[in-house]
Each structure stands twice: as C-alpha cells, then as structure tokens.
Write a structure and sequence with these properties.
The protein is α/β, with parallel strands linked by helices. The protein contains 17 helices and 9 strands. The chain is 46% helix and 12% strand. The strands form 2 sheets. The chain has a 7-stranded mixed sheet with strand order 5-4-3-6-7-9-8, sandwiched between helices. The protein has a two-stranded antiparallel ribbon with strand order 1-2.
C-alpha cells in the first residue's frame, strides 16, 4: 500500500507560482527564520554530544549512536531528524544516519572543523543577550555589560572559564585555518621585519617565517596569549631564533618597529579601541612602513554569518564588522595612506597601506 503526502495548508504545491503561493512561501520562510534558535540549539547539542565524532563512514542506527554518546535513542533520533532538515546529517530509507559535508565539519578532527566555532556562537550567555537586541539598537549601548555587571572578557575569565576555553579554542581553530591563506597572500618583497599585532598564538607569523628563511618577526598580544604562542615560536622551537614574543596590549602601546605590520581580525571592537590601535601602530612605525589590515568585511562577504557576527559584536563588546569604506576611513583618520584592497580568500579581505614619510 502506498500513501501520498498531502501538502500542509500553508505549504504551496510544487510549481505553483501564483501570488498566493509566493505569500505562503514567504510566510514559511519567516517562520523558519523566527525559529532559528531551535536550529542553533540542535547544532550545539550535537557538538556537545559529539555525535559527528561518533558517526563513522557507514550508515549507523540511532540505537548504536545513542549507546556511543550516552543518550536516549528517541530524543537523539528527533535531534538528528531536525538537523537532517538543515543538511546536517542525512537519514537513509531504513532509518539510519550518515554524514553530510556539513555534519563532518562538526567532527573535532576535521581539517576545517567548525565544532568550537559552533559551540562559541551558542554559549549559555548568548541566549541571554540575543533577546535584548532591540535595546542595543535603541541605545547603541553594550547590552552585555548591563546584563552581567562587567565587561565581556572579564566575565569570561572570572565567571565562565568553560566558555573562555571554548572561545580560545574557536579562535585558535579559526587562526590555524586561515594562516596558510594569509601567508601565501602577503607580499614580502623588501620586508626584513614583520610584526603581527594582536596576532594571537602567532600562526600567521609562524607561516610567514617558514615561507622566508631570512625573515624576522615579532608577535604582540596580551601576556596570557603570548604565553601560549605556537610552539614553533617559543624557546626551543624551530623558528624561535627569528621570532620575538612581546606581551602587551596594542590598544595602549605598540613597542615594535617593523617593515610590515599585520593587523588581522582584531579591529572589531568599539571605534575608540580601533582608532587607538591604528594610531599606536602609526606612532611606532618608521616612515614608509606597510600596514596590512585583514578583516571579514560586510560588503565583501558572501554569507549572512558576517552580518550576524556584526550584531553579535554590538551586543557583547559594542564592536562591529566593517565595510570597506568604514575601515578605510578609520585607517585614513589614523594617518595611513591606503594603497590597495584585495580578497585573501572567500571570507577575508586585505587593505594595504603605508605610513607617510
């Protein structure tokens, strides 16, 4: 016996392009967007349960997966079906589940893993700040500070150590994944000294030093960040003799002289800190030095993830994702002469400039 599925009253029939059908499709799309928190929560649950890590290359029953991840079979099946609707995992005709391109990205051992990024975007505090977005839009103020009584990073390290660890892992993963692209992109012609400002653990710097055996480099970041720098840059590392690790805050001072300064993915905080950082670089640099700013820019992005991150930054640190014009304007205000703007890869853009003189 066969059955024929009947479309729900608010679901237009295939091929129906009438105004009523368009309206129904729009209504369904808006409902799905409004219920987007359920999708985010499902991704978080799968990441925390490590379902993607438990699923191998063969179709696997829910019962087997449930036993591996220590979950109840029925709710796990419902979670997987919700994710399969988004293309994360897929269900076979006999009710087993297999990987998709997206679900593989939730594996911790995936070359381009997004496990920690997914966890970071759905940390417990995020569910408290998102519903207050209207307040942030009205006031322009930082919702996070009002909600928790302290600034974002102080809260992370004092009250949410697990979230701080997720943040560190997410940033490390992202930096490692983009380091090779950035290192291949950067023009090192005439450069003897490079400085990575706010460069995290120094993955970009290490990649550049590996590319050019005659290059010397400096990594500047907060003391606790520099302490965990890439092992290649630390004492005893393969690149240590050509690397200098400087603990400091680029918003206060940039005590580094170089031919090329790289500022990657840190000019996302509030305008005051962005202007201060750029001004500190200009004050430290010798005339003619290059300053290369690399960011994920709203007007050069192919994904709504960038605009979502823009709102995320508004809520938690009062920051923003820039457009090309807004970033060029801040660089120019700092005294830099912008020379070129080019894409690094599908999601990063580089704006090259020089210190006049």
């Amino acid at each position: 016996m066969t059955t024929t599925a009947t479309p729900a009253p608010d679901t237009p029939a295939p091929g129906d392009d009438t105004p009523a059908a368009a309206s129904q499709a729009a209504a369904m799309q808006l409902r799905e967007i409004a219920f987007g928190a359920a999708r985010a929560a499902a991704v978080r649950a799968a990441a925390r349960l490590r379902v993607a890590d438990a699923l191998g290359e063969q179709p696997t029953s829910v019962g087997e997966l449930a036993a591996t991840v220590d979950a109840e079979p029925d709710p796990l099946c419902r979670l997987l079906r919700a994710l399969a609707c988004c293309g994360i995992f897929a269900e076979t005709d006999d009710g087993r589940f297999v990987h998709t391109e997206m679900s593989r990205l939730l594996r911790e051992d995936a070359p381009r893993s997004l496990r920690y990024i997914s966890l970071w975007c759905t940390e417990p505090w995020t569910w408290e700040v998102w519903p207050r977005l209207d307040r942030a839009v009205r006031s322009g103020g930082i919702v996070f500070n009002d909600l928790y009584g302290k600034d974002f990073f102080t809260y992370l390290h004092e009250d949410a150590p697990e979230s701080a660890e997720v943040f560190d892992r997410a940033m490390t993963t992202s930096s490692r994944q983009s380091a090779a692209d950035v290192a291949a992109f950067v023009d090192l012609d005439g450069v003897k000294e490079v400085a990575d400002i706010g460069g995290g653990q120094g993955h970009v710097l290490a990649s550049l030093l590996e590319r050019r055996p005659d290059l010397r480099g400096t990594l500047l970041d907060l003391p606790q960040v520099v302490a965990g720098a890439d092992p290649r840059l630390r004492d005893g590392g393969a690149l240590a003799e050509r690397a200098t690790l400087v603990p400091g805050d680029c918003r206060r001072e940039v005590p580094v002289r170089a031919d090329l300064y790289i500022i990657k993915n840190i000019l996302e905080w509030n305008d005051e800190n962005t202007r201060r950082t750029l001004a500190n670089v200009v004050a430290a640099a010798r005339p003619g030095a290059r300053v290369l700013v690399i960011e994920n820019l709203i007007d050069n992005s192919r994904s709504s993830f960038t605009t979502a991150m823009d709102l995320f930054l508004l809520l938690n640190v009062g920051g923003r994702k820039h457009t090309t014009d807004s970033l060029v304007a801040r660089m120019t205000e700092a005294g830099l002469s912008v020379t070129e703007s080019r894409p690094v890869n599908a999601y990063l853009h580089a704006i090259d400039s020089r210190v006049p003189g």
